[in-house]
Amino acid sequence: MAQMTMIQAITNALDLELQRDERVLVFGEDVGHNGGVFRATEGLQKKYGAQRVFDTPLAESGICGLATGLAIQGFRPVAEIQFFGFVFEAMDQIAGQASRMRYRTGGRFHCPVVYRAPFGGGVKTPELHSDSLEGLFVQTPGLKVVVPSNPYDAKGLLIAAIRDNDPVLFLEHMKLYRSFRQEVPDEAYTLPIGQANVVRPGKDVTVIAYGAMVHTAIKAADEWAKARGIEAEVIDLRTISPIDIDTIVTSIKKTHRAVVVQEAQRSAGVAAEVIAQINEHAIYHLEGPVLRITPPDTVYPFTLIEDEWIPSPKQVVGGLERVMNL
């Protein structure tokens, strides 16, 4: 096994799938010669040629529209949206066209597109570059939404997404790209889309998170255990549409308490959906209400106050204290 950063794991996954299946195409702004703004596609155009790894105009609607057309003609496009905050330009192509293709055509056509997009705060980017807009897409039928939190998951989930016959929105938190390394197998492997992972076992309270907030939750749980001797179980959702409610319910039956952490604004997001499903499937196992740890319902702030806006381990610990005292 090699020690890889998350960006290296993503590059490796793309490389293996381009090699395995000639129907796989990779395109987006600057992904060819330059290898992408984060170098996720570095070296791939040189290896596979400009017919399979190529640059596009600066037009998200065109990128995602091209992906839809190619997909229904038998290709497996991987389209990069350079920053997730620019997805507004492609809402119709993703939510109005690709996600509906199987239904609209009575199963005659599939739309196996992967939309890759970096997102997330903590790296001091300009406006619209860090926004967590995943809540806009978890209510889109026919679209799967994946958010890995580590290199191993990123490779396995990206390969699974490329091989999936339905469109997948694959979101990559920028802060995690090069923040740590992890052992990742050299060969191709897949992880099941729609299956969460218990990343820290515990018995007293369940903490549910995704993306970079998984690491915030683990840090908070470790600090809390040292200070209070109380053990939190941390679940990494990995996929936020569909949500793996079975893993969550199994944990809550053991801990009887839950906290959900997300980086996106508070209202109508993944945390709200998780809490709704917990109430539907596990309310009789709870000893108190499920709490949310989120930023406020404001526009993503400018960089000077970004760190005050994003949930911190201290805030998560505060939420754990509250839920234990309910």
Describe this structure in words.
This protein has 326 residues and is of the alpha/beta class. Helices cover 35% and strands 18% of the residues. The chain contains 11 helices and 14 strands. It has helices at residues 6-20, 44-48, 60-72, 91-97, 101-104, 151-163, 213-228, 245-255, 270-282, 306-309, 313-324; strands at residues 2-4, 24-28, 53-55, 76-80, 114-119, 144-146, 168-173, 182-184, 197-200, 205-209, 232-236, 239-241, 258-261, 291-293. The strands form 3 sheets. The protein has a 7-stranded mixed beta sheet, sandwiched between helices. Helix 6 links the parallel strand 6 and strand 7 (168-173). The longest helix is centred in the C-terminal third of the chain and has 16 residues, at 213-228. The protein is globular, with a radius of gyration of 20 Å. The protein starts with a strand and ends with a helix.
Short description:
The protein is α/β, with parallel strands linked by helices and 326 residues long.
Q: Give the radius of gyration.
A: 20 Å
Profile the largest sheet. 7 strands, mixed
Question: What topology, given as strand order, has the largest sheet?
Answer: 3-2-4-5-7-6-12
Summing up helix and strand content along with how strands pair, one would put the structural category as alpha/beta
Instruction: Catalogue the unreliable spans.
Output: none
What average pLDDT do the residues reach? 97
- Give the overall shape, derived from the CA principal axes: globular
How many extended strands?
A: 14
Which range best describes the helical content: under 10%, 10-25%, 25-40%, 40-55%, 55-70% or over 70%? 25-40%
Strand fraction: 15-25%
Which series of helices and strands comes N to C? EHEHEHEHHEEHEEEEHEEHEHEHH
Count of DSSP H/I helices? 11
End-to-end C-alpha gap: 45 Å
